[in-house]
User: Fold this.
Amino acid sequence: MVRNISILGSTGSIGTQALEVIDDLKYIKVWAVSTNTNIDLLERQIRKYKPVIAAVMDESAASVLRQRVKDLAVKVLAGLDGLIQVATMPEAEMVVASVVGIVGLIPTVEAIKAGKHIALANKETLVTAGNIVMKEARQKGVLILPVDSEHSAIFQCLQQKESMCVSMSDVNKLILTASGGPFLGKKRPALQRITPQEALKHPKWDMGSKISIDSATLMNKGLEVIEAKWLFDMDIEKIQVVIHPQSIIHSMVEYVDYSIIAQMGLPDMKLPIQYALTYPKRLTCAVKPLDFTEHTQITFKEPDIDTFGCLALAYKAAKLGGTIPTVLNVANEVAVDWFLKGKIKFLDIEAYIEYAMERHNNIKDPMLKDILEVDSWARACLEERIGDNI
Ligand code: MG
Assistant:
């Protein structure tokens, strides 16, 4: 079990919950923390956990924080270089990658190159650069431990005994469960006038705002399908999404003999976070146990991809491969941001994504620099059209 970690994105939803898990576990030392702009919370974390390095993505916020923590030994760094220092901190054996967005990609790759195990919560890392990341991880012999509840569930279903995974050739398919989000059962006319406030109310999970919107459009599941493809080296055709509104089964593995192993529990991110931190050990966890006499119904249905087009776009991107998933991811990031700011409507999110995907010249087998260039291209492509009816 690792005892020394760095956290990329310690002030976000996953970062703060990871620190709560670390409080409960009591034996882990936090060497480095980082934030995008939330220096108030980062200052409290610095005073509590006494990291050696703290990085702030925003340069001016970094200089404000530097003044505020002058009384402490912590080194406050800024920008992407700062995040890379957090990711490659010599003392850390593991990096919790919980930055939201593509900004997490480079620091995570640097952490792998530096031989750190990764507790991976940043979806963009695998969605945009799955091939590069998994190849690098295999070469360095580092573990990519999923923090996302679905991937943690699949990972747990694949464990035969301590630190030994089954062979993937024994697996028939992966079944990712989806709660269906706040608009489950609704049709497109009803989705026309959805406000950001309505879309942010998730029925089962308490999450950050970007992922809550992704959950409402089903793009979150689409990104998870692509993540699962890379993480478990699985053909996209062998990854199925099933709507399961109660969020009790977090995902399943069907083996070649049609035996299905499911991982269950009440929805609480602390469990997958803790399993990534303590793997291959299981320790007591501060979550409520699941009582089947209280949860007597678990139901399943097929996802409605005619209504929620983002899921179909994600499958399409995964099949096409190359840099198309990067375009999908970035266009989604931009469109969700615009929706949250009231600049575009809920259903425009998928329209903008499709628009960018259709205009992209796919690059097969991209390198990191290609991915970053495509990221900028997709942003520019959409900026030109904001406000237009596309
Ligand atoms: Mg998830």
